[in-house]
Fold these 3 entries.
Entry 1:
Amino acid sequence: MSFDEHEEGSTKKESKSGGQASIWQYIALATIPLVLVLGNSMLVPILPVMQDKLNISRFQSSLVITLFSLTAGIIIPVSGYLSDRFTRKAVIIPSLIVYGAAGVLAGLGAVWSSYPILIAARAIQGLGAAGTAPIAMALVGDIYKGPKASKALGLIEASNGIGKVVSPILGSLLALMTWFAPFFAFPVFCLLALLAVIFMIKEPAKEKEAEPLKQYLQQIKTILKSKGHWLVPAFFAGSITLFILFGVLFYLSQILEEKPYNIEGVRKGLILAIPLLCLVITSYTTGAKIKQNGTLMRWLMNIGLILMIVSLTLATFLNGNLYVFIGLLSISGVGTGLLLPCLNTLITGSVEREQRGMITSLYNSLRFIGVAFGPPLFGWLMSISHKTLFISVASLSLLMLVLVFFFIKPKAELKQQT
């Protein structure tokens, strides 16, 4: 089915800030997803040390990552509603403050060797995370229109990827000083992002008064009823893509430390960065090129998923040579980089500003849940066999291709809602 005629609604004039896009505003927007990823992925390299220092199990150490993502995934829709009712910055700014302050508390929990304090602080960080990157996506839709919107959304996705690239390396480097150093480094990055949001981002003024909650929820229900035939598949495509991405990275991180590779520390971080770098470059390029071309978006989404299917299927049988295996995962990263910016642009531009926060939040909530379940489920599949794991994720990619091909059919030229 094709997009609804409502998608062709007239677009109002670009806001002054959108028409005169500042490089500093782009940078400020990019810091939000970047600091979000740093606060989570930077801890991955120190998990084995944490197990030893705090005398906890592998499962307990994995909760430091999983509980953060699950808490954020549950709270994101609430943050989306608040950003629609008030303003985006009114949610992002306090969220960054909570996020950074809880990072300090988590660091103190590590210093005191208190796992309960550490894990509670990570849950609080998840509450703060819910109001950062997901709301930034809605803010981009408010500030920019047309080609500038897709370019900015591509930058957001690329920034997310850059965070994934540098996080393992940065976490490993900081841990050379002391194992809990990453906990205290993160609030510094959070403070820089906070200052950038306050002073570099000019949010357009709200044009309408906030609606009563009952009427607001009714409008969300109407949107999902009229556009759910493609929005819901798009939500799940984003979630499954992140599930596969983080799961594959977890798998790669595990096998690199085992025989015959025995690769650890910064060297391992650099190898993990290769497929992520392919994702970053592809995401930014895709965002810059797609503009509002719906036909091109459809081609790129389907090509991206085909690349994922082929590379993950071949990885089932060609894992003996590390160079070939990394090459296949890099091709999968390219496929992910083709898919996500298109989904971001379609979802963000599909609704009016008054409901954009909730719709993008529902999308990001499912993405966070995909991230949360990736590592533990991949760990379980690893215990069965390598082939079972990659046949499963290749099948999931095939399912996504079916959903995207048959249900997500954007019009040739899209017009973003104001």
Entry 2:
Amino acid sequence: MDFITFILTTVFISLSGVLAPGPMLALTLTEGKVNRLAGVEISAGHAIVELPIIAVLFMAGKSFEIGIFKEILALSGGILMLYLAFRELKGKNSEIRIRGILSGIAVSALNPYFIIWWLTIGFTLILISMNFGPAGIAAFAIAHLACDFGWYGSVSIFANRISGMKNINRILSIISASILAVFGLYFIVSSIRALHLYFR
């Protein structure tokens, strides 16, 4: 995987989570009706939780023998992506209503799927980023956070203009689930092929 492909993969996988209707979107839509910058504030709270996680996982990744560990992690991440895709299509989401930056912190830190995502899918991307040195992890963090700020910032700005939210949410669910399923299958297939080489 070259650097450009890695960044594009990061963006698409990040967007699959960002576009998913759930607590973050519910908060942004609710607060965006009265605060145009709600999406930016919520994303800032989200970033406060994410950046330390990225740093810790990057340092942890440097202490591991990548090899087989990375493939097992990729397999786990792929399975998780398929599960999350299934949940999206089944409409399994919840709402948490708080306000501002603190709401972004709470909705991230208290969401078990957020932590699981970072320990599997996110960690896999971080391990891949290590192939590109410091620029790789920096580009990964910037690309991932840009998806959060760009999407939720836009949603809060245009929240008052959006109508028929149920239909829009369903379209976003299908898009998110499709992205998750495609990359989930890619991770699973590529990791199984690599593991096959280890054990044959």
Entry 3:
Amino acid sequence: MSDELDQLTDAEPIKDPGLPAHQHRPTDVDPAQELRAERQITGMFTVASLLLIGFCVAYIMIDKDQTFLGWSAMNFTLGATLGGALLLMGVGIIQWAKKLMGDDEMVELRHPAASTAEERAATLEDLNAGINESGFGRRPLIRRSLFLSMSFLALPTVIMLRDMGPLPYGHKNTVWKKGMRVVNDVAGTPIKPSDLQVGQLVNAEPAIMYEKDKDGEAVLHGTELLQEKSKAAVIVVRMKPEAITPSKGRENWGIDGILCYSKICTHVGCPISLWEQQTHHLLCPCHQSTFDLADNGKVVFGPAHRPLPQLPLALDSEGYLIAVSDFPEVVGPSYPELARDQKRLDDKS
């Protein structure tokens, strides 16, 4: 039995497994067709590059509200240019492989998983031979046009990064202004000091959400309303006045222990309202940045670099909480430039 296995192992493979004779492609035997195929592939890569440039132009120039045959003109153009570019690049690569790269049939014997040094060297030789047969080195026109189209493929990615959000320097201004009431963000009712108990936290927003113009129309509505609401969101907390240690110039920013801070974490902008009333700490649920609201919202733990922006408060003639001004600090996530500028302001003050 052992002798039979040895004979099977040492047996040579079938020399002719019945495959038909190899047929050469037209591009293998006709130089004119080879040149025509090379030009076609180069043209595909070049047109793909132009379509990618068109994608960037359409993204910048076409208004998002413009329509075409009932569709969004921007979406239609972006889809057509990017899809066409990717299609042409893919078809060009396939045509290159089918018409111009090596077309020889190869037989590879089975071997143990661990290759010998000689086999590894032979594999490297085969890889180099394949690179030579692909014509990558001797077809500079195709190679350069492919690299050109692939380099332009990065343009849409760079252009579309602008859609990821506002530039990373926070919101310098919000809709808060002098005399604007602080209202509950659920019911929209204005807040009086008597409505808050010591240790309580209320999520709030500016009353601009409910203001009307002279014609009775909402000042803000739709997407613009939601954007301004997210930037101006605040929390209102009440502590014992003796527990608060305001910094210089902020002695009158609260009302009988009631303070107001931005709801946007200064780390990466998460909404924050996890309140520890005994320690006066506010915890961000995203990355555990912790702020001491009794000490001007300074950071006591976590990756945040700036204190929470504080909104100065006062009372109107009816006894409701109102803003004295907009936030004096930038509202939003911290970035190295923003943290540096804030430190300079703190050092000056």
